[in-house]
Amino acid sequence: MPEITSNDKVAVQSFINTQFGLNDPVLAADYAEIAMFLSVEQRWGPEVARLSGFLEEEYWVQTAKGFSNRLSTAISTVGAQLGFSNYSNGIVMAGFTDPGVFTSYVSKGSFWKDAVSSNHGEYSHSLQWLTLGLAAAGKRLSLRTTASYLFKNAVAHQSDKEFVVPGRNQPSKIYLWDFLVDCFDFGPDPDWQANTATHTARSPTHFNTRIQASKTWIGRHLRKRYAKRGWAAPGSPTPTSTKGYAIERATQKGYQQQHSNSGGNYVYEHSRVTTPVTVNKPAGPRGRLKGQLTISAGAWGAEAPRTATLQWTTRLGTVLRLTYLGNTAEFNAGCHDVTFDFGEDAGHRLTVLNLAKAKAS
């Protein structure tokens, strides 16, 4: 049985229930559903595309407001909507975190930014679990418990037997978390009952590689992020170590060191767990998002600066309000449906208004 397939539900459920000491058929069934879901790209791929749409909207709201850490904040917002109530977006794990420290964060429901290698990816685990949460919310993944609970509980159970773990000198016991979402895409031929090698989304490296190969917004965004930093593409035989970059950035940005170990690995936290950080980065054009322009003052219908407010609400309910000062010759008093753009591409020619003249609140 090299890889988990859609026909293995009973076998996977029984294996998880007994091997990881759950003694709970309902919980084991949920974890088996997760393992099977992540093993079939035809199931998780469309969910990533759906997730990408939500992330894109929230990202550009943060851009318009001038906040830094925009992708982490977008992930946080989507996570909160999907029941990850204890989600944190100001945690960085630079290098391999000690197991006890790692499990303490997971058991509290914290997401984090990984800094191990370009293959693994910074956001792979967050995106894995948001994909699962979105699929469950849409009844496309059948779970009887919440994705948030399953996330936190995945580090509460260790295997009875020892698994072959790529990169380790000898077999060792693993957490249920490792079995589900932290496998490796190299080493021995995959065998889900004997090792943690897989060529499916149960491996964060495989998941990261496939996302960046996709045509989704999150795929494009991550590719640009890697190119800007000069990192090797995911799946590279010579991945870039991202630990040093993370340590340098965390130090520059005032993160507080919480944990360290003899291997020179660190965990950092930042106040942006609760407080957004403002930067001077104006929004440029991209996105073609729909909103409403409400006329609040001025003599309209003339080619002269007038004041108006633009309000746009994302699908998750985040509200962006923009105060606009510009040419209003196309408009009359009242409320107008408009198309407006956000983003990182060049130019400021917009369909209705120029966000370079707008201030967000």
UniProtKB/TrEMBL annotation:
Residues 29-212 form the DUF5636 domain. It comes from the Bacteria. This is DUF5636 domain-containing protein. It comes from Steroidobacter gossypii.
